[in-house]
Specification:
By secondary structure, the protein is an alpha/beta fold. The chain folds into three domains: 2-85, Arginyl tRNA synthetase N-terminal domain (Gyrase A, domain 2); 112-253 and 313-368, HUPs (Rossmann fold, 3-Layer(aba) Sandwich), CATH 3.40.50; 389-551, Isoleucyl-tRNA Synthetase, Domain 1. The protein has 22 helices and 13 strands. The chain has helices at residues 2-16, 21-27, 44-50, 54-64, 87-93, 130-145, 162-173, 176-182, 184-198, 202-216, 220-244, 261-270, 304-319, 333-345, 379-397, 404-421, 433-436, 444-460, 474-484, 486-496, 500-519, 527-551; strands at residues 39-42, 71-77, 80-85, 111-115, 149-153, 274-277, 280-283, 293-296, 323-329, 354-359, 362-364, 367-368, 429-431. The strands form four sheets. The chain has a four-stranded parallel sheet with strand order 5-4-9-10, with helices on both faces. Strands 1-3-2 form a three-stranded antiparallel sheet. Strands 6-7-8 form a three-stranded antiparallel sheet. Helix 18 (444-460) runs antiparallel to helix 22 (527-551). The protein is globular and about 85 Å long.
Length: 559
């Protein structure tokens, strides 16, 4: 379709004489109603240039424009000139529908760091992490597919005063045996007990502050305990990441940058950016309508902006990124805007390469998820329930299925991933067990089942032969149209950092395939008709499978 649009752009430029072909090309739209044509050119931009109403321009163009061979007719409608593509052209397009190699070159030679997931160690992986984890992984897949070299970074929350509390709690109430037996749950237990008892015993809080101070100063006993907490936490997180099919290139957490922050503070001071505000060191951002960025507390300890600036500087030096992307909740938008501006004020031109990708809040029962209040859902519990439900459905529908458990894992995990990526990322979501585990309607299992349906059809058919001269029907054309949108949708998802573009596209494409499947038999067809439909099914399967992979869902050959 791209070649046809280019030809039409030259035709519009030639017929009007007031717009360049490259500018005309950017104006083309796809009519929402297929009966209105396949490609639409809005004439509103030409109205000032030609000093005529858009409807008059569209009417005149319809009679003067030279149409490419692929275009059957052009019709003016309310200021638009709508073009209808010949069915025979769609048949010719079929051979290239499964080839998306051009898109894979768009990011060649570029590097993106994507910072996502980043749980706080010594705490279980909960539903609050699902947004950053699923969105970040999908973006990683999309960028890699578009040719970028991606460094996936899990910026672990593995430093801070909470570890002073944990060390004290561990020494008073726990042991390695208890942690080996219960994992992170034991760490959560003793941390909760410490906070509860500290409410009536202030000496515990002082002991925690002293313990963290000792940890920072290199106390080897405390460093060993801290490393053990980190190791146990990562061991548990890896089970979840393995289940989700997510891998990281770096697990450098907050602790990695503790020795790199003094240099940042000194640089800010040397460049005259630090000011004292009630004893704290800040960067004044009032000229940019933002509160000051806190760099040092009154006691001289560092804060998150200091750490993030140090991390960004290290990543730029280590990876020489073209983009450094941070996938975190929208609630942190001000924080990122502040320290991005500080990096810019420090004189680093790569500040423009820093990107915050925010997402909406996740609540449960209308209340914010919070471990302190007990309003929490653990991700491993959700995944286990989804897999169990998938297995029971498979037992009912296809009890003899080979690799039943592996398929149930793919379907169950896919349901959770899809649920996290279905809406635009900035939308707030009130979590519902029913919707998260739903296998009917617009769901992950529906997409995977449709992919499996196409795989089943292809297993029953011979390899596609010659289909020259075949004229596709309306449902076949509708499916081809959907498949031609793949490259544009992936490019849009990358440009907007929005995986839901792929999710919605795949839903529409599966809908078009199922309509084709029911109206246009493949196995019972013969000759050129069957060959065409086999090729179309194969093109759908390849495109749908690629979409599943981009979203972080598994292909399911049989369900």
């Amino acid at each position: 379709m791209k070649d046809v649009k280019q030809e039409l752009a030259y035709a519009v430029a030639s017929a009007t004489g007031v717009i360049a072909a490259e500018d005309a090309l950017r104006l083309f739209e796809t009519p929402p109603d297929p009966s209105k044509g396949d490609i639409a050119f809005p004439c509103f931009r030409l109205s000032k240039l030609l000093r005529k109403p858009p409807a008059v321009i569209a009417q005149e163009l319809s009679g003067t424009i030279g149409l490419p061979d692929a275009i059957e007719k052009a019709e003016p409608v309310n200021g638009y000139l709508n073009f209808f593509v010949r069915p025979s052209y769609y048949a010719q397009m079929l051979a290239s529908l499964g080839d998306h190699s051009a898109l894979c070159e768009s990011g060649k030679g570029k590097t993106a760091c994507i910072d996502f997931s980043s749980p706080n160690i010594a705490k279980k992986f909960h539903l609050g992490h699902i947004g950053t984890t699923m969105i970040g992984n999908a973006l990683r897949n999309i960028f890699e597919y578009c040719g970028w070299k991606v460094i996936a970074i899990n910026y672990l929350g593995d430093w801070g005063t909470s570890f002073g509390k944990l060390i004290c709690a561990y020494k008073m109430w726990s042991s390695r045996e208890a942690i080996e037996r219960n994992g992170v749950i034991e760490l959560e237990r003793i941390y909760a007990r410490f906070n509860k008892e500290a409410q009536t015993d202030e000496s515990l809080n002082q002991a925690a502050r002293d313990a963290f101070c000792a940890l920072e100063q290199g106390n080897e006993e405390y460093r060993e305990i801290w490393r053990y907490f980190r190791e146990i936490s990562l061991k548990e997180y890896m089970k979840t990441y393995d289940l989700l099919g997510i891998k990281f290139d770096s697990y450098n957490g907050e602790s990695f940058y503790t020795d790199k922050m003094p240099a940042v503070v000194e640089e800010l001071r040397e460049k005259g950016l630090l000011k004292l505000d009630d004893g704290a060191s800040v960067v004044d951002l009032s000229a940019y309508d933002m509160p000051p960025a806190l760099i040092l507390k009154r006691d001289g300890s560092t804060l998150y902006p200091t750490r993030d600036i140090a991390a960004a500087k290290w990543r730029k030096q280590e990876y020489d990124f073209d983009k450094c992307i941070y996938v975190t909740s929208a609630g942190q938008s001000l924080h990122f805007a502040q320290w991005f501006k500080v990096v810019e004020l420090m004189g680093y031109d790569w500040a423009s390469e820093l990107v915050h990708v925010p997402y909406g809040t996740m609540s449960f029962g209308g209340e914010k998820l919070a471990s302190r209040t007990g309003n929490i859902i653990y991700l491993d519990d959700l995944l286990a329930q989804a897999i169990e439900k998938a297995e029971s459905i498979i037992d009912e529908k296809n009890a003899d299925l080979k690799d039943k458990h592996e398929t149930a894992v793919a379907i169950g995990v896919g349901a959770v991933v899809f649920n996290a990526l279905f809406n635009a990322r900035i939308k707030d979501v009130d979590f519902s067990w029913d919707s998260a585990l739903s296998f009917e309607g617009n769901t992950g299992p529906y997409l995977q089942y449709t992919y499996a349906r196409a795989s089943s059809v292809l297993r029953k058919c011979p390899d596609a032969g010659d289909c020259a001269g075949y004229s596709p029907n309306a449902d076949e054309i509708a499916l081809i149209k959907q498949l031609t949108l793949f490259d544009n949708k992936v490019a849009q998802a990358l440009e907007q950092y929005e995986p839901s573009v792929i999710t919605r596209y795949l839903l529409d494409t599966c809908g078009a395939y199922n309509q084709f499947y029911h109206s246009s038999p493949v196995v019972r067809a013969e000759g050129a008709e069957q060959n065409f439909r086999i090729s179309l099914t194969a093109a759908f399967r390849e495109t749908a499978g690629k979409c599943l992979e981009l979203l972080g869902m598994r292909r399911t050959e049989e369900i």
